[in-house]
Design a protein that fits this description.
The chain is mainly α and about 250 residues long. The protein has eight helices and no strands.
Amino acid sequence: MKNGLKELNFLKKYDPRLYRLVDLAQGYPKDDPHACLIRLRQFGELLARLWASKLNLFPEDDELYSDFLDRIYRDGRITPKVFEGLSHLKNRGNNALHGFQGDCETAADTLVIAKNLAHLFKSTFVGKLKGTQKVTSAPGPKIKPNTTDNNKKAKGEIASNCMEGEDYTGKELSSQDFSGKDLRGYDFTGANLIRANFCNTNLNNVSFKGADLRGANFEGAVNLHSNQLDSSSREGAIFPEELQRILDSKK
């Protein structure tokens, strides 16, 4: 592990690609500043979308990243400091990609901006989500092994005790039953949801990005859109027919 990246380990919980992109970028400045700037541009876009999802905001269909970034800033959902930092990553990365612009000094400065944005994300969201409660701070009942009735009861209680906007980022939730629940604003980013049941749920502004949804059942779910499923594993999952057609068309 390179020096200075240990402090960014928390990024792996939200999206391992964030950590990987900074790791790659840190190895480039002296040898290939353009590659560094392009990686940091990718990091900035990925972080911006994660940041927005924490605020229950998602890009519209076919909305360009630059337009999305401008929109969430105009709406006052990110601070000028965050907007300026993300814009720096975007513009310098675009200049490197299309105009071969940027030297080692520019790359090193941009890497510092990226790391500062990561720390701003941490101070804003990690453990401080307004109106939410971590599962670890209010755990459901322990599930006893090899006891079918206890398993079913515990799973039901976990789902029924959820608060609006619950943060389940990276949690182990395989086979959990959320059927019939109003899950608006929930965050399942990177969670293990293999064979989970989301039948007849309200999934307005719910994030499943990077989640493992293999075998999950979403029959009858409403307000679920393809952009909420970015980078998720979906083999064997059952989705509403209209959404399934959209997903199939993107393959």
